[in-house]
């Protein structure tokens, strides 16, 4: 990771369109940015496309970057995160918008027994991995609402859907995620016994 001073030098270099500074910022923040992109798609090609489109926006707009905090690195990471999220939203709108209104697949209609407390035995990483199995529309709404902290009104505005559709897709995403996690827990339990 770059030091604060190195980052400031390379931000100025990027503002002057210096390829070496762009390469250094890209490689330094690649893993961080890719982890954001992976939350919005389960296809490596799509994640790479979102990442590259996002970095293109970063390099075009970097002259506008002003640190919001005294820590330039944290401020830059927040700015980069926001660009990657909005780039993922743009990608979703371009390729998956119509999947928001699709009904749940019949295989996900069965919900787990409410007495089963599998959630307490599931790690954060397992939940993030399970989110990748959600349909693109459900995954996007769930990520924006739960992980990014968007309101339903903000989600509706960004995705071009109604507030009701956002709420409905979040509820369906939670049910679908619950089913995925329950099925994973059943497989693990059967393999242990």
Can you give keywords for this protein?
single chain, 193 residues, mainly alpha, 8 helices, 0% strand, globular
What does this molecule look like?
- By secondary structure, this protein is mainly α.
- Helix content is 68%, strand content 0%.
- It has helices spanning 4-15, 19-38, 44-61, 72-95, 124-131, 136-147, 152-159, 163-192.
Residue windows where pLDDT falls under 50 for at least 5 positions:
100-119
Structural class: mainly alpha
Query: What is the radius of gyration?
Result: 19 Å
What order do the helices and strands follow? HHHHHHHH
Total beta-strand segments: 0
Distance between the termini: 45 Å
The major sheet is characterized as: none
Assign an overall shape. Answer: globular
Q: On the 0-100 scale, what is the average pLDDT?
A: 84
* Percentage of β-strand residues: under 5%
Helix run count = 8
Q: Specify the helix fraction band.
A: 55-70%
């Amino acid at each position: 990771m770059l030091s604060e001073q190195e980052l400031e030098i390379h931000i100025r270099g990027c503002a002057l369109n210096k390829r070496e500074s762009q390469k250094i910022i890209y490689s330094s923040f690649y893993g961080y940015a890719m982890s954001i992109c992976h939350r919005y798609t389960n296809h490596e090609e799509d994640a790479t496309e979102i990442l590259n489109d996002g970095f293109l926006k970063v390099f075009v707009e970097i002259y506008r970057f002003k640190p919001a905090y005294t820590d330039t690195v944290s401020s830059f990471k927040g700015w980069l995160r926001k660009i990657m999220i909005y780039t993922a939203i743009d990608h979703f709108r371009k390729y998956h918008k119509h999947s928001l209104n699709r009904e749940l697949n019949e295989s996900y209609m069965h919900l787990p027994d409410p007495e089963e407390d599998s959630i307490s035995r599931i790690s954060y990483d397992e939940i993030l991995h399970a989110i990748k199995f959600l349909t693109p529309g459900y995954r996007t709404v769930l990520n924006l609402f739960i992980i990014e902290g968007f309101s339903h009104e903000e989600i509706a505005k960004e995705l071009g859907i109604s507030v009701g559709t956002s709420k409905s897709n979040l509820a369906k995403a939670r049910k679908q995620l619950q089913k995925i996690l329950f099925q994973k827990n059943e497989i693990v339990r059967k393999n242990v016994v």
